[in-house]
Amino acid sequence: MKPSLLERFRLLDNFGHSLAAPAYLFHPRKVEEIAEVFELARQSGLSVTARGAGRSYNDAALNGGGIVLDFQQMNRILAWDPVSGRITVEPGLTLCQLWQAVLPDGWWPPVVSGTMTTTLGGCLAANIHGKNNYRMGVIGEHVVEFTALLPTGELVTCSSKHNGDLFRAMIGGFGLLGVFTSITLQMKRVYSGLLNVRAWGVPDLATHLAEIEANAPEHDYTVGWLDATAGGRWLGRGQLHTADYLHEGEDPNPSQTLRVEYQTLPNRFFGLVPKSLLHDFMAPFLNNPGVWAVNTVKYLLGKGDKCYRQSHAAFHFLLDYVPNWELAYGRGGLIQYQSFLPKQTAADAWREMLTLSQRRGLPSYLGVTKRHRPDGFLLSHSVDGFSLALDFKVTATNRSRLAALLQEFDRIVLQAGGRFYFAKNSETHPETARAFLGEETLAQFRRLKKRCDPENLLESDLYRRVFEKA
Ligand SMILES: Cc1cc2nc3c(=O)[nH]c(=O)nc-3n(C[C@H](O)[C@H](O)[C@H](O)COP(=O)(O)OP(=O)(O)OC[C@H]3O[C@@H](n4cnc5c(N)ncnc54)[C@H](O)[C@@H]3O)c2cc1C
C-alpha cells in the first residue's frame, strides 16, 4: 500500500448526521495494512481511529484531522462450526452477514443491536447490549477470544482467562487500546426462525417500569416504547413487547422459517410504497405537534393485548425496516441520549428528565426502555436496573438549548446513581465520566493505555472530548 494522504481526505459523519469531521480514510484488508497505517501515523504525527459501519450516535468513530481505519472490507468469516455454534470472523463483518450465515444451521447471535448494519468490531468496541441484556448480558460475555493489533505492533490474543485485563478493557474500550483483527463468538441455538411475541399498552411510567420488571424474568426478550411527548398522568405511557424462542418441535416447519429469505423484511410498505421512500413520508411529522399526534395514535392503537409470531429479523431490526430513517430528522440530524439507572431510582429520575424536556419544548421523539444487569467489563455502562434511550431532533436553533438540557440530564442521572454509554451520548463531559466510572477504573484504563499505546496513536473525537481530560 502506498498511501497518499491527501487523496484520502473525506468528510465523515456520525449515524444521526449531527456531527461531522474530515479525516484520512483507509480501508485495510489485512493485518499488515493496519500496521502500515500505524507506522504512517507515527511518521506524520496523526492519530488513528477505528471505524466499523459508523453507526454510533456520537463521535466514537470520528477523528477530526486524523486517520480513520474503516474495517468494512475486512469482513470474512474465517471459521464456522455448525455443530458447536462457534464462529470466527474478521471485525468488519456486519450483524446482518453474521445472522445470515448462522441461522440456516439453527443458530442466532446471542446479543444484537437494534440495527443489523453494525460490524462485529464496532459491537465489541462498544460492548453492545440487546433486548435480552438482563438474561444474556452484553456481547462481550459471548466472546470466546479475540486477536487485536496494538499500536506497539504486538498482536495479542485475549480471552477471559488469557490476558484477562485486556479482554475486559478492550471489549467496551471504543478502540482506544488496540484494534480487533479477529473475533470468535459463541452463537445461541434456535429451533425456529420465529419468536412468540406479546405486545400490550402501559398507561404511565410507574406501570411501564413495574411491568418490565415483572415480565423480564419470564421472557427471552423485553423492550418498551415510551411516548416521551405525553405529560401529566400519561407521562411514561407506551407499549411493551416480550419475545420468546420457540422450543424444539413447536415450529411445524423450521426448515422454512430458518431460511434467510423467510426473515428478510419486505421491500415495499403496505405492498405499495418502496421502503427507500418512507423517510420522505416521515419527515413532515417530525416536529413537536406531529410526533405528539403520531405517538397518541400509536399508543391508542397499541393499548390492547396482542400475541403473534414474528421472524427474528423483524423483531430485532424493526428500525432497519425504514432505510435511512434518520434522514427524516432533516439537516440538523439527531442525537440519542441513553441513561442507565438502578431500578430503585429510575422512575423518579426519568419523571424529572421527561418533564424538564417537555417544559423546555424539547421533547424526545422516540423513547426506548430496556432491563439490564451489571457486567464485569472495565468501562461498563450497565446497571441492575433499566435504560431509557431518547432520540432528539437537532436544529440550528435548538442545538445549544439541547446541549444545556442534556447537561441537566447528566446531573440528574449522576445523582440517581446512573451510568452512561459512550456509543450514544454526545455531550458527556470528562467530569461526568469521572463521576460514574470512578478514579480507580480510570487509573486502570490509563495504565493499559500506556502499555498498549504508549505514543497515544489511537485517539478519536470521543477520546479527546471525554478521556483525555477525565
Ligand atoms: C438504529 C441503531 C440502533 C442501535 N441499537 C443499539 C442497541 O440496541 N444496543 C446497543 O448497545 N447499541 C445500539 N446501537 C449503537 C451501535 O450498536 C454501536 O454504536 C456500535 O458500536 C456501532 O457499530 P459500528 O460497526 O457502526 O461501529 P462504529 O460506530 O463505526 O464504531 C464504534 C466504536 O467501535 C470502534 N471500532 C470499530 N471497529 C473497531 C475495530 N476493528 N477494533 C477496535 N475498535 C473498533 C470505533 O473506534 C468506535 O469507538 C444502535 C445504533 C443504531 C444506529
Keywords, please?
about 475 residues; alpha+beta; Uridine Diphospho-n-acetylenolpyruvylglucosamine Reductase, domain 2; Uridine Diphospho-n-acetylenolpyruvylglucosamine Reductase, domain 3; Vanillyl-alcohol Oxidase, Chain A, domain 3; 3 domains; 8-stranded antiparallel beta sheet; 5-stranded antiparallel beta sheet; 21 strands; binds flavin-adenine dinucleotide
How would you describe this structure to a colleague?
It contains 16 helices and 21 strands. The radius of gyration is 22 Å and the shape is globular. The protein has helices spanning 31-44, 95-102, 120-126, 133-136, 164-170, 205-215, 254-257, 260-263, 278-282, 288-301, 312-316, 346-359, 399-415, 430-437, 439-452, 461-467, and strands at 9-13, 20-26, 48-51, 67-70, 77-81, 86-89, 107-108, 143-149, 155-158, 179-186, 188-189, 194-202, 221-226, 238-245, 268-269, 273-274, 306-311, 334-342, 366-372, 385-393, 419-420. Strand 15 (268-269) and strand 16 (273-274) form a beta hairpin. It has 3 domains: 6-72 and 447-467, Uridine Diphospho-n-acetylenolpyruvylglucosamine Reductase, domain 2, CATH 3.30.43.10; 74-189, Uridine Diphospho-n-acetylenolpyruvylglucosamine Reductase, domain 3 (2-Layer Sandwich), CATH 3.30.465; 194-430, 3-Layer(aba) Sandwich (Vanillyl-alcohol Oxidase, Chain A, domain 3), CATH 3.40.462. The chain has 470 residues and is of the alpha+beta class. The relative contact order is 0.14. Residues 15, 49-56, 60-61, 71, 91, 113-115, 118-119, 121-123, 125-126, 128-130, 174-175, 179-180, 319, 423, 460 line the site of flavin-adenine dinucleotide (FAD).
